[in-house]
Amino acid sequence: MVFTKYEDSINWIHDRLKFGVKPGLKRMEWLLNELGHPENNIPTIHVAGTNGKGSTISYMLHMLMEADYNVGTFTSPYIETFNERISINGQPITDDEMLQLVNEVKPYVEKIEETDLGSPTEFEIITTMMFLYFGKVNKPDFLLLETGLGGRLDSTNIIDPIISVITNIGYDHMNILGNTITEITREKAGIIKKGKPIFTAAEKEEALDVLAQTAKEREAPCYSLGTDISIKNLSTWEQGEMFTIQTKHNTYEDVKIKMRGNHQIKNAALAISVIDYLMDQGVVKITIDQVLVGIKKSIWKGRFELIQENPVVIVDGAHNDEGIESLIDTANRHYSHSRIHILFSALSDKNYKKMIERLSTVATSMHFTTFEFPRAAKAEDLFSACDLEDKSFSESWQELLDELVFSYKNEKSDIIIVTGSLYFISTIRNYLLSNKSTEINK
């Protein structure tokens, strides 16, 4: 059956969620072989890590676009529309393109289901569609490719990239990737390919040891933030952060970024070092001015993002320990004199008690809710895990959000931070931006 409606094609993809996560590359190898290996036609920068993948990709995207390159991106999860996972020059592919991709891939999905390899997962299908799009339909100058989970057995790890990038490494998806930083790093290091350079912002010694050893085994030049790339002269400006970065080839002074937080400075420095290397190798033609202009334009939805100003409402998809620590650091950096009111929701399989304890150190009040998602934690369970005196909960996030916005409107010293699950902040973000949150927001 051929789909004629976009909605039906998306529902078909989402229906594959029931197959969960199935690490391994056999199904991807089979599907891409049937499609004629479109992944081999794309110059790709492969990005793995615990946090910061999306932001690092955004920085590289905007710098390359400033130099008039056509750049494809593959990221997850989506914040506004499903289509944004496959984007060209920051614009999601159209509904018609998505429909055509589903119809082209569907017969092969049905064919592989009849083999011993079994049914592909949702992520495997969307990854196959992405390779098909960028390899045959709309070939970019570069593809910035984000891993879904880990690296070694991730569905994206089917390519031979021009560069591999590993952002910071911390504890997340431990049920799949391992219980120690060493084990997790081994999985992330799986994207390092023979002879292809690796750039990393990893900081933990055990992570750096694994990356250095893997790079050595695969004869891959390894460049590390803090060793080969240095950051200095850190300060803030009215819209974000400012710093200087020294690479092996150039010095970039007074770099300005709009994404806030010390972690974003590191992500930006990592991205600049990658582009700087490509510039030195003659792979890209880009000036230092274009680098500075492009990186200043960079934004990443849902990462300490200012959604409205009266009252200040910020959404941040801090969904693990490292994300929470970055949020706390950024709040202290930019809102140390404000009263912070946190609206929080998380998935039940996360260590939300620890996250709540850390957030309580900067919060004047905390408020808990739930949202429509199979693994969403109950609002009352989150509430019970909080020791802060000023706290509340509601099963209706709309009512709780509207109440908070109403309470702190015209209060310049109060800010609202919405955080927790990326799925949750996506829901809140879309609600606020659509102006459907009652007359309060008008």
Verbal overview:
α1 (6-14) crosses α4 (95-112). The protein has helices at residues 6-14, 26-34, 53-66, 95-112, 122-137, 174-177, 181-188, 205-217, 262-280, 288-297, 321-334, 352-359, 379-384, 397-408, 422-433; strands at residues 44-48, 71-74, 86-88, 91-92, 142-146, 163-166, 198-200, 222-224, 230-237, 240-246, 251-257, 305-309, 312-316, 339-345, 365-368, 391-393, 414-420. Helices cover 39% and strands 19% of the residues. The strands form three sheets. Strands 4-3-2-5-1-6-7-8 form an eight-stranded mixed beta sheet, sandwiched between helices. Strands 12-13-17-14-15-16 form a six-stranded mixed beta sheet. The longest helix has 19 residues, at 262-280. The protein has 442 residues and is of the alpha/beta class. The chain contains 15 helices and 17 strands. It has two domains: 6-297, Mur-like, catalytic domain (UDP-N-acetylmuramoyl-L-alanine:D-glutamate ligase); 305-441, Mur ligase, C-terminal domain (Protein-Tyrosine Phosphatase, Chain A), CATH 3.90.190.
Corresponding CATH superfamily of the largest domain: Mur-like, catalytic domain
* Order of the strands making up the biggest sheet: 4-3-2-5-1-6-7-8
Beta strands, count: 17
Question: Total number of helical segments?
Answer: 15
Largest sheet: 8 strands, mixed
Rounded to an integer in angstroms, the radius of gyration calculated over CA atoms is: 22 Å
Residues in β-strands, percent: 15-25%
Structural class: alpha/beta
Count of discrete structural domains:
2
CATH level-1 class of the largest domain? Alpha Beta
Indicate the percent of residues in helices.
25-40%
Instruction: Give the integer mean of the pLDDT values.
Output: 93
List the uncertain runs: 436-442
Morphology: globular
**N-C termini distance:** 46 Å
Q: In CATH terms, what is the fold-level topology of the largest domain?
A: UDP-N-acetylmuramoyl-L-alanine:D-glutamate ligase
